[in-house]
Amino acid sequence: MKKGSETVMIKGSCCCQAVQFELANPPSFVGTCHCSRCRKVGASTIAFVKREDVKWISGKDCVQVFEPVAPYIYQRCFCKICGTSLGEILSTEDSFPIAVNTLDGDLGLVNQSHEFVGEKPSWYEICDDAPQNVGHPE
């Protein structure tokens, strides 16, 4: 993001501040997944970032990876000290999701999509106009 003529980094961290990082550019997409796995790991709302935009400040060694159990295929990362869900922050893909709850400031983006609404519990009410998909968006 730009503030005047300078670029402002987007800061991110876990709850205990052991894991800290910055994003050189805003995420390209923010969406909410309602599948049971995302709900259980506490990271239903995600932001897609580019690997080249993630700059580690501290705590990369504090990230614990949870290996998925079939039928799931994506790893999930957590702070091994406080348990904050970090999304897929250690991914080697060019673009990957991180948990929006790790970002410390306002991104200037709104939720752009809901996926797996077929698994959404009745107690959760969707209160925005973002497109809703029964599974992954087509």
What is the CATH architecture term?
Beta Complex
Mean pLDDT across every amino acid position: 88
Strand order of the largest sheet: 11-6-5-12
Alpha-carbon distance between the two ends:
30 Å
Helix coverage percent of residues? under 10%
Total strands: the figure is 12
CATH fold label: Metal Binding Protein, Guanine Nucleotide Exchange Factor, Chain A
- Biggest sheet details: 4 strands, mixed
Strand and helix map with partners:
Blueprint: E1 2-3, E2 6-7, E3 10-13, E4 20-23, E5 29-33, H1 36-41, E6 45-50, E7 54-58, E8 63-66, E9 76-79, E10 85-87, E11 95-99, E12 114-115
Parallel strand pairs: 5-12
Antiparallel strand pairs: 1-2, 3-4, 4-7, 5-6, 6-11, 8-9, 9-10
Descriptive terms for the model:
three-stranded antiparallel sheet, four-stranded mixed sheet, globular, mainly beta
Describe the overall structure.
- With 138 residues, this protein is mainly β.
- Strand 1 (2-3) and strand 2 (6-7) form a beta hairpin.
- It has one domain: Metal Binding Protein, Guanine Nucleotide Exchange Factor, Chain A (Beta Complex), CATH 2.170.150.
- The chain has one helix at 36-41, and strands spanning 2-3, 6-7, 10-13, 20-23, 29-33, 45-50, 54-58, 63-66, 76-79, 85-87, 95-99, 114-115.
- It has one helix and twelve strands, in the order βββββαβββββββ.
- Helix content is 4%, strand content 33%.
- It is globular, with a radius of gyration of 15 Å.
- The two termini are 30 Å apart.
Give a short overview:
This protein is mainly beta. The protein is built from one helix and twelve strands. It has one domain: Metal Binding Protein, Guanine Nucleotide Exchange Factor, Chain A, CATH 2.170.150.70.
